[in-house]
Amino acid sequence: MSEMTDAVRMDKVTKAYGELKALDELDLVVKQGEWVSIVGPSGSGKTTCMNLIGCMDRPTSGVVEISGLNLANMNENDLTRVRREQIGLVFQKFHLIGHLSALENVMLAQYYHSITDESEALAVLERVGLAARATHRPSQLSGGEQQRVAIARALINQPPLILADEPTGNLDAANAAAVLELFAELHTQGVTLIVVTHDPSVAARGTREIVLDHGTLVRDSVLR
Ligand code: ADP
Ligand code: MG
């Protein structure tokens, strides 16, 4: 695949719930290596957009491509494979498995992707500052620590695209700063980041900010 393939391409994407259009003919191209902040009022379609890019939902009409792969041509197994191979998901609700340790939660993502490697899983926990908590279960971790486990899980398979929906929404200032530092490091490494946030200081860290309103793109600005 060419270096220049766009990370994400959405072409006239509509997601309708009855009369309501959560997304209304949205066009969006994200280049590889961009760090896109998505902002907009509650109900403007931000999560719907992330779910479509994250292969967790299908549009009512329009085309979504991830790394040049047209999702419309894919069955559920194909979509699951794209999600596991191309995308790291960091959502506000952590969706960690309660009876597994931090390390096991990360290794489960390895298992689904390819094969498990405990030393690699430990290394990624170390990278998010959680090596000392590897054997703890989610209930034994703070909200910030759980979020960092979820990020470790998203990073373990080195996806080229990270999708984060309100990644700092549940975090105190110190943990939010740590998450943003990690995103900055990933950005430096060429990872594409798409981050939904209500927080202007989080949005400002991106290289580009888009504003959604009523399912349409109402502003698109280059930040740096
Ligand atoms: P945001 O993340 O920007 O707050 P969402 O993408 O969650 O917005 O929602 C966009 C619109 O779509 C909202 O009006 C919401 O109520 C509606 N919506 C989202 N998911 C569903 C669903 N599963 N069924 C019906 N309406 C939905
Ligand atoms: Mg949302």
Describe this structure in words.
The protein is an alpha/beta fold and 224 residues long. Helices cover 33% and strands 28% of the residues. It contains seven helices and ten strands. Strand 4 and strand 5 form a beta hairpin. The mean pLDDT is 94. It binds adenosine-5'-diphosphate and magnesium ion. Residues 46-47 line the site of magnesium ion (MG). Magnesium ion binds at residues 46-47.
Q: Portion of residues in helices? A: 25-40%
Would you count the extended β strands for me? 10
General shape: globular
Q: Overall pLDDT, averaged?
A: 94
Unreliable parts: none
Strand neighbour order, sheet with most strands: 6-7-8-3-9-10
Instruction: Give the CA-CA distance, first to last residue.
Output: 27 Å
Note the total helix count: 7
How much of the polypeptide forms β-strand, as a percent range? 25-35%
| Major sheet details | 6 strands, mixed
